[in-house]
Amino acid sequence: MTRKKTDLSSIGEFKLIELISKDIKIKNKSTKKGIGDDAAILDYKKFQTVVTTDLLIEGIHFNLDYVPLKHLGYKSVTVNLSDVYAMNASPKQITVSIAVSNRFPLEAIEELYSGIKLACKKYNVDIVGGDTSSSMQGLIISITAIGEITDEKIVLRSTAKKNNLICVSGDLGAAYAGLQLLERERIIYKKNPEIQPILKGYDYILERQLKPEARKDIIKIFEELNIIPTSMIDISDGLSSEILHICKQSNKGCKIYEDKIPIAKETIDFANEINIDPTIIAMNGGEDYELLFTIDINDYDKIKNNPYISIIGQIDKSNEGQYLITRDGTAIKIEAQGWNTMNLL
Amino acid sequence: MTRKKTDLSSIGEFKLIELISKDIKIKNKSTKKGIGDDAAILDYKKFQTVVTTDLLIEGIHFNLDYVPLKHLGYKSVTVNLSDVYAMNASPKQITVSIAVSNRFPLEAIEELYSGIKLACKKYNVDIVGGDTSSSMQGLIISITAIGEITDEKIVLRSTAKKNNLICVSGDLGAAYAGLQLLERERIIYKKNPEIQPILKGYDYILERQLKPEARKDIIKIFEELNIIPTSMIDISDGLSSEILHICKQSNKGCKIYEDKIPIAKETIDFANEINIDPTIIAMNGGEDYELLFTIDINDYDKIKNNPYISIIGQIDKSNEGQYLITRDGTAIKIEAQGWNTMNLL
Known about the structure:
2 copies of one chain form a homodimer.
Chain A: H1 13-21, E1 31-33, E2 40-43, E3 48-57, H2 69-85, E4 90-100, H3 106-123, E5 126-134, E6 140-149, E7 165-169, H4 174-191, H5 203-210, H6 216-225, E8 231-234, H7 239-250, E9 253-257, H8 265-273, H9 278-284, E10 291-295, H10 300-303, E11 309-316, E12 322-325, E13 331-333
Helix pairs in contact in A: 2-3, 4-5, 4-8
């Protein structure tokens, strides 16, 4: 099937904005005025406002060779919402700015927005503004998410206490495994376009990379179980980086136990296939968008049998340092990750 | 003088964020928690929240051949604040995301941020978050501004009434004249690097292009004179586009009188020099960041002698259309501008 392609220059900026905006309906009471003026107006009378932002660039944060535009739109939203949930808050609005080079037809932008809108629907979030423009090269997406929270429920990174239990939702490393799989198949395909990429049987790690969810359900569990974590962060760069953020900002040490880190069978299988230690992927892989949090030891009974939460370690005094305790009992110092390291390649 | 240049890869992401953040001090009571967590926390108990965002891309929105980085940082902030003032609101916080290619040394980013911070200081705005990453090519800046306003003072684009006076702050077209001057000198310099750019004597139009201010003072005048405009928008794309936004969203017609449009002597002189009608520059030039607003005719006496405000026309019934009335009395239909037209080249 050949799809029609509409040149963006034949539409112009205002028509494009109209097309993007036309089926956006306001869902939240706090969204007083959305798209269509110089700014959106939000009403948070009883709540604190939470705000976070992300900038995603083609070739750096995503590769359109293997990321479908709809998935990309979906993921652009969920990674932002994840930051709002990591404050224990509820996301309510987003702004979406995009810049595209002229190689993008209208249909590509509609595809991107269909993913953005799908995520907004699922997480009950309103699109209230944004910006559209040309780019010199590739696709650029900037999303700002805004949420609300009552004063007493705010959870920061800097408030972990000694003897707190370190917990993580879901499992780690799958998103990175999915990325490595896509990258491997892309290289094979580039060398020989006759060979179709083999992606069958890898559904779980692919979905974790291409269409990650934000852990709204975990925030709901906290509410239901009457737990307020003592500190929290979402895992975007990898467990190593994130636990160091919590420890350094809380001025604490920690022990993470290798055998407690939740890793899916599919991730372990793929790690074995490419000869990388699954623990390395889980510690440094990034893009899991799971929640890493600490709780008071008195809350242990509330979560001990929860299938979505794993207890992976404990918070220590600051002079005890930050360590991964391996299966054989060796203590390895946890090192920071960032730009220059494997997880953002 | 040769300045030292520090390679960004020698610093890493976390150190860069630390350097950027280190001298940021919170100025607003509503800024409860700024940089350093998954999201910022804002507190607007008695107010509505206003939010707006802009994405600026090297080669599209600015050209580093002639825009100093400090000015670019300053302008990136003021153009966003301008949108907040256009709601009759007060900006309080911004988030700043940047992406840079590896040709940018640390000193360039510090220069950019020195302009961003200068604007924040002047407008009393807090930087509360952001994102830093690599780009494939060039510099990308995404800024979201957040402000506050009481319910009864909100001014939309969609509420202009028949017989309202159309007003504009400052003067129009100078920013576009400045851009044309810079572009002319750039081309001459590229052809012959021996010839130094002639920018002397053009201070006003250059400053309007390189370092525009947001009209905080006009919002203050409204407060002092007890005026609430019936509609308002800031002039980023040009008077033509903006008055059409107001008219179409308010479902109204209008007449703008050519001889009432405020144009600075320096703009007229430069327009004559390059053989363009100054009115065309004023109507379509864009980037003036002046406020275009409508007021009830009963407020006429309050502003008639105000040196910062010009009355340039009136709002009509919708079936009367949107027209520019030229000096010789001809009515010319006002046409929309956008991406494809001169003002974003």
